[in-house]
Design a protein that fits this description.
By secondary structure, the protein is of the alpha+beta class. It has one domain. It is 23% helix and 31% strand. It is built from six helices and 13 strands. Strands 1, 2, 3, 4, 7, 8, 9, 10 and 13 form a nine-stranded mixed β-sheet that branches. A four-stranded antiparallel β-sheet has the order 6-5-12-11, covered by helices on one side. A hairpin with a 4-residue loop joins β11 and β12. The two termini are 16 Å apart.
Length: 233
């Protein structure tokens, strides 16, 4: 599971602190790696996958370093034989954006996690939230008529659609958005220069290299979503 950082899209005068302050906290996530791999976070991601793809799936964490370098953290095996490769990202604060890694090492131009070199089918982007709002039911809510409630495993995809799952538990929770990697990659390729001009490239300072990232507001990538859910931690 990769740590996505804590940078938000541009804003000024926000009660959340300055953009620079928020950005300078990005690499705290690397020190929080134990948190990102905790049983509670892993269980929340796995509950989401079972709601999205069906209870009959098996979930295998990836130990193969080659696959990990290609952006595959978990392998989902469906009863129909289909296998789905998942790249997991985690943030500790919600800034209303998708933090896209452009280059993991900017000066060496090492491609980031949306590069065509990566092998994931979906990116599961998790954000920790303080509490869930009141919801009328813990049943899945279908927001599109062409995507039936009950999961994605056997549903042909003919266009943008989104299935939403909500957990009524008021404890801190993980909000997960499941992006279709090929669709998100194509969207980013078309819109990258415009996004770069509008939202600005930012840098995460590491010990011996810089990582370049672009904070893209969620509304810009809403049509790349397959499913969204909140699960208590």
């Amino acid at each position: 599971m990769a740590l996505a950082g804590s940078r938000s899209s541009k804003s000024s005068g926000s009660s959340r602190g300055s953009a620079e302050d928020r950005f300078n906290r990005m690499n705290r996530f690397r020190r929080d790696l134990a948190y990102s791999q905790s049983d509670r976070v892993a269980a929340a991601f796995d509950r989401f996958y079972r709601r999205a793809f069906g209870e009959g799936i098996s979930i295998t964490p990836i130990a193969d370093l080659r696959l990990q370098r290609q952006g595959v953290d978990k392998l989902l095996s469906l009863p129909n034989g289909r296998r789905i490769r998942i790249d997991e990202k985690l943030r500790r604060t919600d800034y209303g954006d998708l933090l896209i890694e452009e280059f993991s090492d900017f000066d060496r131009r090492t491609p980031g996690w949306l590069s065509p070199r990566t092998a994931s089918d979906f990116i599961a982007y998790g954000v920790v939230i303080g509490a869930l709002p009141d919801t009328p039911s813990d049943a899945p809510v279908d927001t599109q008529t062409d995507t039936p409630t009950g999961g994605l495993s056997d549903t042909p995809w003919n266009g943008p659609s989104e299935v939403v799952f909500e957990d009524r538990d008021p404890r801190p929770a993980l909000e997960i958005r499941l992006f279709r990697t090929p669709l998100l990659r194509r969207k980013a390729a078309r819109r990258w220069e415009a996004w770069l001009s509008r939202y600005g490239r930012k840098f995460a300072k590491n010990a011996h290299y810089r990582t370049s990232v672009l904070p893209v507001p969620l509304h810009e990538v809403a049509d790349c979503l397959a499913a969204r859910g909140r699960f208590s931690l």
